[in-house]
Amino acid sequence: MFIRSARYAFSSFPSPLVSVQYLKQNLNKVKVLDCSWYLPQMNRNAELEYKKSHIPGAIRFDIDANSLQETSLPHMLPKKEDFERSVSDMGISNNDQIVVYDGLNIFTSARVYWQFKYFGHKDISVLDGGFPAWIKENCAVSDAPPQIKQAKYKATPQPHMLRELDFILKNIENQNKGQKGDYVLDARPATSFNGEVPELNPALPNGHMPYSTSLPFIQLIDQKTGLLKTAEEIKEILNSLNIDLNRNIICSCYQGVTAAVIYIALERIGLKNISLYDGSWIEYAFTKDVEIKKK
């Protein structure tokens, strides 16, 4: 039986998504960000694709450039002042309505959505289905650079949305002692979670964090339409995993990107007791003396 709680409200919680039709009708009222990014093995160049074709007026948001530079870990949250400077240079103010998209239905756009929300932005959504859905609907595209007017952006970090390594280690320690801890939902493929395939980085151990649960992000996306699954479908998936929604949930993955797909799926069903582990597996597995589980 699916567990309901007063901590989430299905009817009143705003959706993290907007449709192609909505964006088409409101294109002149919102700031659109192209957040496309691809793994090396995908053999795609996000910057070149953007210059060739993007949603009219879309501003390029590079997740590599807009991350913490003083670390070897990929895509970690940038410093507050660096984020403020970068977003201001994009011509975005705190009162702007933002719609983010990427070239793979829902992938890096979810991460950028979470990042803006972490820094306190109130009005931001993910384009459901991304650029492929925009193209499928025969909507206009452009190769023209956007017209940008310098803005003044002020970030207000939301610490409850972020989990770091110390918290993860303590969460595991508590569960080793028989205490209830926060759930960790892992967005990586099941073969990676189970330690059946090598990691992208051959120096990285494979497997998963103790007490974590496998929820490959691809399961949350309708493979026929490229859209995020409905709230009822998402609830059914969580029910099949025996997730008690009264407990806190931490989203994790390989490097903190697809974890955000789980995050927006949980928001879609109204959950508020959710956070994201920024370092994810690439940080945890490189940490000395941690416990790693395999199938």
TrEMBL record:
The keyword Transferase appears for this protein: yes
GO MF annotation list: thiosulfate-cyanide sulfurtransferase activity
Highest taxon in the source lineage: Eukaryota
PROSITE patterns tied to this protein: RHODANESE_1 (PS00380), RHODANESE_3 (PS50206)
Gene Ontology annotations for the cellular component aspect, listed alphabetically: mitochondrion
Domain Rhodanese, first and last residues per copy: 26-136, 178-293
Pfam families (alphabetical): Rhodanese
Sorted UniProt keywords: Transferase
PANTHER family found in the cross-reference section: SULFURTRANSFERASE, THIOSULFATE SULFERTANSFERASE
Protein name as it appears in the record: Rhodanese domain-containing protein
Organism: Paramecium pentaurelia
Lineage: Eukaryota, Sar, Alveolata, Ciliophora, Intramacronucleata
